[in-house]
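Example 3.2
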Amino acid sequence: MTKIQEISVKDTAIRTMKVGGVDYICITDIARQRNSLEPNAVVGNWMRNRNTIEYLGIWESLNNPGFNPIEFEGFRNQAGLNAFTLSPSRWIEATNAIGLVSKSGRYGGTYAQRDIAFKFASWVSVEFELYLIKEFQRLKEEEQKQLGWSAKRELSKINYHIHTDAVRANLVPDEVDAYHSSLIYAEEADVLNVALFGITAKEWRDANPGKKGNMRDYATINQLICLSNMENLNAVFINEGIPQRDRLHKLNKIAIQQMTVLEEVGNRKLLK
């Protein structure tokens, strides 16, 4: 299922989506800047333009191995004539184009690869194009932050297994049943929770009854980096036979030190 997102550009909702990992922007939404009642007519007028046909053809030639240049030449020869009309769906079907996508239904409209969409926005309004580019860049930055968070969360999960292996090898006696083993694992997980977040998992759940998941699902990237490091360190401390109380004290000092460094690095980046 294609994920549709929205950005707001000058109080206009502009839909975006990805097709095969490529960003597309709804030019039907952009066209409402010129004609809110008949945006498809605006797109149709743009596609009648010879410069538009040439731009689309060059883009497809550079990015689409399956592009049909013969049909493109036919459209280019007709472009500019009074009787010439061209819809996005006709262009896509005739030339096997991938730069435009025509969708029907709830999220219907014409979507264009972002370079083409910016070109169309410039034709509609240079001012609107600049606002669109700025807002689209903000969306991409947010996506990158989310990807970074997800990667750190996965790393934390991997290191969690290293941590639990150390607990199992050193702290769980062979004769302990599964229920009591789980209590030992939870207790050791709370050593990390208290050292970093200052509260246990139960205390967090009691304080946040409406939230799904656990406190680690709501951690910042810096907290996940620190947590990943602490899981490895606690595994080492457990293997060395350091008592839990001493480990908690050491881990808390490490957490404070690492979070201070990580936050300072982040602040320096923001000031640049």
